[in-house]
């Protein structure tokens, strides 16, 4: 025992001398430009004072404890000032909350010391105070090591040479304390050997710390590691939670009997339930991330990691992966931690339709989802719409009047991001509010704008590839039809020639009778086939005629109603100018599609009416319906069909025929409910008013 006391005395005395010399050297020769110079002198002086007190008094005496508290607070302040050597107050703001928390924990030793002095003869209280103080010192050591790690790792490469001696000394100081107090907690009391070596260790670590002040600190820049910071902060939260539970359990040891056991069991159950429900939650992780970014970093985003994640999301391929539209909105939502999102894309009329819904449950998006006028404003201004500002009445460029009402009423809607490709909008991304609510700022706007342009290029490239594929299919189809028509024309010419020769040699009654009948029937059939095939080409020069849509609809009902119930529910007269044959063919296509989508006992309804300007014909079924994705990208695409074995040209041909007559074809559909096709053609009188009607047309109505 006497040897340990003598060793401790010599070690603490040597430590006090070395620390005092180090403080004097920094004061006289240290780099005067460093902001941590004065705190370092004070910390070394207080360390020398602690060593002097430990050498003069027995361990555990109040004077020794007080000097150790002062020493630890001084070193925490030195660590804090090391972050400020880049000359900017912003860096201090990043680490201030963590340093203040560690100082608060260290300052709690004053309270523990008072409790111990108030109960000098109580063994249970002394033991509990010792264990609590030891846990607090472990917590401070761990927190200080985390700060030192972020100080060194976050520094620029040239700055690390200036920090290496200081960081190494502080790491050794707190690592020794961490091991010392961990062993003390396990053994129930401080180790005499380690206690004797603490003073010597402090003196040895003061030497490299002093060497660090022999180098200039110009250009020092702090760049904290986000990944390490998040993990460290998570560990600190979990560690604080566990220490709190352990501390409460130890304090409950003061109780006795059944009450103590009941309270301890209840505490364990409550702590476990809280850990299972609260710690793994997305909201807690989101709050932790937002808090760390707000207080520890100068920029909200780690642009390198964001770009890597963005590339991985967009670049995923395979049969089991989502479509590009869904990956597009997911990549956009991941940036702002939005839990859901929508992608709206323009149709051929310029209005926006729903193209993808990523995890936005329970939202009914109307058709159209947004007007084309909104796109015109966003193309001109490149504005990212803050939906909360729109709700509050803020209007920057007149966009507020074009934001649809359903979007304003949806409380989860947070931002609308335009996807611009060569100053043309190819889509709108609608982001939901993050789990941890916050306001959009300049950094969000900048990053979302850049990512929006990149996503727009991907969508435009996909659209271009689809157009090339469609053109290739059309080219193949036309080539095949050209060969067929060429062969049929040759055969028709040959048969016509034979027919003429047979008419010249009519002296043989049997030949004339048989050949004329056979050849005439064959020629008629071939000419009829040619006429049908020619319908798939352009119908140039076909004169439009007055046609009553009600009569045309009744003719289709009579024709198609034989195989499936087709009901005429409304038949107001509406005279339009069109090609009767093309109109009938288009209506037959649409009615047949409705029949194919319906059950055998589910009737198809047709109605005709006029709105004073146009004649409207609606075809309604209660069939399977179509998804928004198929409506936007599949229904009117040639060679794309939802029916097994279908060619996929019926709806496309019907729309093109109706457009050639100056009309339009609209469709509304919902899966599991049904579909409504609406044919709209200007009335004859309205057509003449706008100068499109021919001067004279005398034809009968269909």
From TrEMBL:
Catalytic activities = ATP + protein L-histidine = ADP + protein N-phospho-L-histidine
Q: Which UniProt keywords apply?
A: ATP-binding, Kinase, Membrane, Nucleotide-binding, Transferase, Transmembrane, Transmembrane helix
Domain Histidine kinase per the UniProt entry, residue ranges: 483-685
**TM ranges:** 6-27, 39-57, 63-82, 94-115, 135-155, 167-188, 194-213, 233-253, 259-279
Q: What class of enzyme is it?
A: transferase
Q: Which InterPro entries match?
A: 2C_sensor_his_kinase, GAF, GAF-like_dom_sf, HATPase_C_sf, HATPase_dom, His_kinase_dom, Sig_transdc_His_kin-like_C, XrtA/PrsK
- Offer an example of a GO molecular function term for this protein: protein histidine kinase activity
Q: Which SUPFAM superfamilies match?
A: ATPase domain of HSP90 chaperone/DNA topoisomerase II/histidine kinase (SSF55874), GAF domain-like (SSF55781)
Specify the superkingdom: Bacteria
> Any idea of its EC number?
2.7.13.3
Matching Pfam families: GAF, HATPase_c
* Signal peptide (residue range): none
Which protein, by its recorded name, is this? histidine kinase
Gene giving rise to this polypeptide: prsK
């Amino acid at each position: 025992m006497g040897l340990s006391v003598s060793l401790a005395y010599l070690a603490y005395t040597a430590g006090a001398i070395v620390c005092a010399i180090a403080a004097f050297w920094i004061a006289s020769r240290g780099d005067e430009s460093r902001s941590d110079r004065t705190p370092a002198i004070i910390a070394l002086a207080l360390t020398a004072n602690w060593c002097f007190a430990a050498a003069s008094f027995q361990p555990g005496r109040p004077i020794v404890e007080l000097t150790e508290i002062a020493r630890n607070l001084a070193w925490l302040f030195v660590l804090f000032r090391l972050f400020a050597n880049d000359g900017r107050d912003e860096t201090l703001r990043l680490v201030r909350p963590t340093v203040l928390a560690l100082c608060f924990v260290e300052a709690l030793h004053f309270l523990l010391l008072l409790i111990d002095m108030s109960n000098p003869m109580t063994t249970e209280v002394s033991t509990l105070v010792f264990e609590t103080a030891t846990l607090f010192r472990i917590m401070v050591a761990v927190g200080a090591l985390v700060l030192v790690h972020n100080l060194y790792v976050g520094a620029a490469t040239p700055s690390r040479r200036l920090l290496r001696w200081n960081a190494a000394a502080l790491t050794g100081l707190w690592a020794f304390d961490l091991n010392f107090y961990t062993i003390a907690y396990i053994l129930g009391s401080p180790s005499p050997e380690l206690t004797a070596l603490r003073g010597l260790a402090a003196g040895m670590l003061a030497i490299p710390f002093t060497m660090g002040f022999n180098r200039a600190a110009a250009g020092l820049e702090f760049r904290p590691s986000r990944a390490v910071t998040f993990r460290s902060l998570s560990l600190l939260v979990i560690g604080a939670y566990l220490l709190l539970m352990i501390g409460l359990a130890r304090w409950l040891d003061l109780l006795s009997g059944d009450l103590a056991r009941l309270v301890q069991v209840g505490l364990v159950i409550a702590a476990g339930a809280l850990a299972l429900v609260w710690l793994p939650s997305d909201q807690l992780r989101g709050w932790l991330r937002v808090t760390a970014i707000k207080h520890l970093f100068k920029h909200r985003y780690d642009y390198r990691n964001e770009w890597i994640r963005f590339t991985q999301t967009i670049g995923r391929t395979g049969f089991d992966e989502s479509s590009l539209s869904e990956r597009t909105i997911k990549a956009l939502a991941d940036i702002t931690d939005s839990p859901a999102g929508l992608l709206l894309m323009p149709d051929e009329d310029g209005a926006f339709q729903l193209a993808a819904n990523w995890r936005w449950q329970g939202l009914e998006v109307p058709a159209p989802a947004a007007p084309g006028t909104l796109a015109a404003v966003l193309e001109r201004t490149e504005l990212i719409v803050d939906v909360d500002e729109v709700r509050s009445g803020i209007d920057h460029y007149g966009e507020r009047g074009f934001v649809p009402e359903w979007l304003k009423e949806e409380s989860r809607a947070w931002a609308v991001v335009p996807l611009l490709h060569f100053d043309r909008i190819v889509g709108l991304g609608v982001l939901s509010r993050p789990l941890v609510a916050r306001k959009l700022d300049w950094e969000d706007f900048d990053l979302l704008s850049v990512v929006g342009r990149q996503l727009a290029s991907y969508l435009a490239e996909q659209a271009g590839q689809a157009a090339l594929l469609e053109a290739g299919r059309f080219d193949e189809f036309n080539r095949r039809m050209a060969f067929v028509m060429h062969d049929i024309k040759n055969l028709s010419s040959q048969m016509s020639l034979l027919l003429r020769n047979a008419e010249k040699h009519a002296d043989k009654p049997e030949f004339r009778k048989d050949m004329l009948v056979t050849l005439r029937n064959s020629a008629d059939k071939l000419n009829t086939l040619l006429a049908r095939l020619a319908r798939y080409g352009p119908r140039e020069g076909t004169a439009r005629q007055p046609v009553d849509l009600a009569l045309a609809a009744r003719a289709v009902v009579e024709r198609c109603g034989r195989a499936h119930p087709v009901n005429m529910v409304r038949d107001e007269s509406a005279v339009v100018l069109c090609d009767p044959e093309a109109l009938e063919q288009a209506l037959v296509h649409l009615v047949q599609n409705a029949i194919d989508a319906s059950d055998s006992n589910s009737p198809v309804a047709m109605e005709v009416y006029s709105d004073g300007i146009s004649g409207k014909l609606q075809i309604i079924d209660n069939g399977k319906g179509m998804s928004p994705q198929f409506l936007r990208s599949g229904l009117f695409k040639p060679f794309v069909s939802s029916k097994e074995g279908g060619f996929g040209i019926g709806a496309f041909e019907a729309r093109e025929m109706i457009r050639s007559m100056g009309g339009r074809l609209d469709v509304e559909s919902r899966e599991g409910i049904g579909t409504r096709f609406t044919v709209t053609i200007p009335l004859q009188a309205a057509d003449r008013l706008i100068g499109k009607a021919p001067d004279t047309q005398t034809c009968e109505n269909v």
